[in-house]
Amino acid sequence: MYTVPKLTNFSSAALDAAARDLLSALEAEAAAIRGDSEYKVFRDRWLARKDGVNELKTKITVVVEATLERLQGGASADRLLAERVDITLPGIRRPLGTEHPVIRTMNEIVGVFRNLGYSVSEGPEIETDYSNFESLNFPPHHPARDMQDTLFLAGQDEKALRDRLLLRTHTSPVQIRTMEKLKPPLRIVIPGKVYRNDPPDASHSPVFHQIEGLAVDNNIRFGDLKGTLDHAMKALFGSKVKTQFRPSFFPFTEPSAEMMVSCFICGGSGKRGREPCRPCKTTGWIEILGCGMVDPNVFEFVKDNGYDPAKVSGFAFGMGADRIAILKYGVDDIQLFFQGDVRFLQQFG
Ligand code: DAH
What we know:
Elements: H1 12-32, H2 36-47, H3 54-71, H4 77-82, H5 101-114, E1 119-120, E2 126-128, H6 129-132, E3 165-167, H7 173-181, E4 186-195, E5 207-217, H8 222-237, E6 243-250, E7 253-262, E8 271-272, E9 275-276, E10 285-294, H9 296-300, E11 313-320, H10 321-329, H11 342-345
Parallel strand pairs: 1-4
Antiparallel strand pairs: 2-3, 4-5, 5-11, 6-7, 7-10, 8-9, 10-11
Helix pairs in contact: 1-3, 2-3, 5-10
Residues 170, 172, 212, 250, 253, 290-292, 316-318 line the site of 3,4-dihydroxyphenylalanine.
């Protein structure tokens, strides 16, 4: 262990040499310190010295503190100097993504219904014939079950019809899936991807998006359907739009309707200045969704879970999210949504 020598020669060269010896002894001891108790002894021995010259004391303090830092795993002054960050350098630009226009439209629609107390339900994109067709009251030879319209999975021929797998053609099967799990009353919206055997063109795509809705309770009437959807359309397209219901047919609703919204592009006039309004084909109305009162035959499939058609009633609706996004943003080709061209998508940033 180092002890301070008694000096006899006080020339500056001799003093320098003595100081060097002292400092290298300090460094050597410091390097050997492992653990707290050794450190304390070391610190007290070196810092309590009365025989140190002031200048030496400062240097000693530096080494002692660096030793503590090393023990604590902190950065040494040297390392800090080497790794210094130049905060004046320009940053690295990370381009921010934004919601895809179709996803944004879906979130908006879901938001409108969330505000009305609806929850969100989801289901698989690969479905059984049972959920996609049978339990929704589609007869066995309905054209939608044809290979021309629906994409079936290969190798299903051995299975019973109801077990065959296909890509869901609409979000409606999630109606039955949710009613199998949850008892009434029920209020849900179902956003998701759906698939049809359609060749792509400006208004068709083999994959597109729908938002489905379902409300079931003890005393739901057609007026509830109209009031709810009229409110939703005003929330989405502005308080001035009007709605109109026209008779239609779907296997899973009775009665069924298609809902028209007064054209929010031309304000319902059918004209834009002197030009004809294209989105509403000059009619002043745009077809937005299909809807209706849930057919009692559908409730029969989930009767055992509290959906006795004699006791409950409900309404359902389904709309195409891509089509609504096309109308909202004035896009003239649905393919643009799926090509991933950044120049197109950046316009919605
Ligand atoms: N599933 C229908 C389709 O894809 C849309 C639809 C119509 C859904 C009426 C509904 C409804 O829930 O009640 O064309």
